[in-house]
């Protein structure tokens, strides 16, 4: 398979065929993110993408899932995405689902009809990095999207029957704003009602603006017990009526946690309280990964 640069995909797409439809991230300005700093954003040519698909067809006997990379492929116009989805349908009739990274603005820019067209051609999930529910933190990390936009986008997608899988970053408010990060992230999840939500834990990536702030002493990382305390407060502030699959078992997390909200909320809060007292349960820094 042909790939340009490093490839990033959600953990749940570990067994998917990854198809690069764009190179890089059209935003590429989040202060903590180093994923696409080496790439200048562009859409790939359809011919090239189709060639990749034909290569994959020759190589793999069965392809159950396909993930469209890179950073926010949903930014592409619908005719482009539809052409790819239709080619996938022709070449991989066995494919159960196609998923994609998207930003709130990508979802809001598309009409309901456009999103439904993508859904009709097997787009089954949109992954979105929300990071925090706090407006000031979103501004500081240069997310380029507001709390309101992200709530509206998730509600729109979920309302049209396209599930969303959202990631949030424990510790992204630093020591100064951990409490705001916890409470506002809990309430944004309550307002969004996503199908899936996961907490990752911030790791500072050299070469990013956040790393520079950290080196200048302008940003303080939370200790592992503080990260767990923050997650506890986030969970306390999540009040959902419909089921949301919750995961905090990424390689960056100090303690692994999973359950369904709201059913398992109290049990997960209790686990976090106990884990704060047991440093021997925390993942060693050497084994944390992004
Ligand atoms: S976090 Fe997502 S939106 Fe922000 S720069 Fe990285 S890939 Fe782009």
In CATH, the architecture is Alpha-Beta Barrel
Ligands and ions found:
iron/sulfur cluster
User: Could you tell me how far the N terminus lies from the C terminus, measured between alpha carbons in angstroms?
Assistant: 24 Å
Query: In total, how many domains does the architecture comprise?
Result: 1
The DSSP helix count reads: 10
Walkthrough of the structure:
Helices cover 38% and strands 17% of the residues. It has ten helices and ten strands. The mean pLDDT is 96. The longest helix has 15 residues. The protein has a single domain, classed as Aldolase class I (TIM Barrel, Alpha-Beta Barrel). Helix 7 links the parallel strand 7 and strand 8. Bound molecules: iron/sulfur cluster.
Identify the notable features of this structure and list them briefly.
single chain; alpha/beta; TIM Barrel; eight-stranded mixed sheet; 10 strands; 38% helix; globular
Itemize the secondary structure elements and their pairings.
Blueprint: E1 17-20, E2 22-23, E3 42-43, H1 46-59, E4 65-69, H2 78-91, E5 97-101, H3 104-109, H4 112-120, E6 123-131, H5 135-140, H6 147-159, E7 164-170, H7 178-192, E8 196-201, H8 209-215, H9 224-236, E9 244-248, E10 257-261, H10 265-276
Parallel strand pairs: 1-4, 4-5, 5-6, 6-7, 7-8, 8-9
Antiparallel strand pairs: 2-3, 9-10
Bound molecules: iron/sulfur cluster (SF4).
């Amino acid at each position: 398979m042909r790939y340009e640069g490093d490839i990033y995909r959600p953990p749940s797409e570990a067994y998917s065929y990854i198809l690069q439809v764009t190179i890089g991230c059209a935003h590429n300005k989040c202060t903590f993110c180093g994923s696409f700093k080496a790439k200048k954003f562009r859409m790939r040519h359809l011919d090239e993408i189709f060639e990749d698909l034909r290569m994959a067809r020759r190589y793999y006997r069965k392809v159950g899932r396909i993930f469209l990379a890179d950073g926010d492929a949903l930014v592409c116009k619908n005719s482009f995405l539809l052409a790819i989805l239709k080619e996938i349908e022709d070449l991989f009739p066995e494919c159960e689902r196609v998923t994609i990274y998207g930003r709130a603005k990508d979802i809001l820019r598309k009409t309901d009809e456009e999103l439904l067209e993508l859904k009709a051609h097997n787009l089954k999930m949109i992954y979105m990095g929300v990071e925090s529910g706090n407006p000031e933190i979103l501004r500081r990390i240069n997310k380029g999207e507001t709390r309101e936009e992200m709530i509206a986008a998730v509600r729109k997608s979920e309302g049209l029957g396209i599930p969303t899988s959202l990631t949030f970053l424990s510790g992204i408010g630093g020591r100064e704003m951990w409490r705001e990060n916890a409470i506002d992230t809990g309430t944004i999840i309550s307002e969004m009602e996503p199908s899936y939500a996961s907490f990752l834990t911030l790791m500072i990536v050299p070469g990013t603006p956040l790393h520079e702030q950290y080196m200048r002493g302008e940003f303080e990382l939370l200790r592992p017990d503080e990260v767990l305390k923050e997650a506890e407060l986030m969970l306390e502030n999540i009040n959902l009526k419909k089921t949301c699959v919750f995961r905090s078992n990424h390689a960056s997390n100090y303690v692994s946690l999973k359950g369904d909200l709201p059913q398992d909320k109290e049990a997960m809060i209790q686990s976090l309280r106990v884990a704060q007292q047991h440093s021997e349960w925390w993942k060693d820094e050497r084994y944390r990964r992004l």
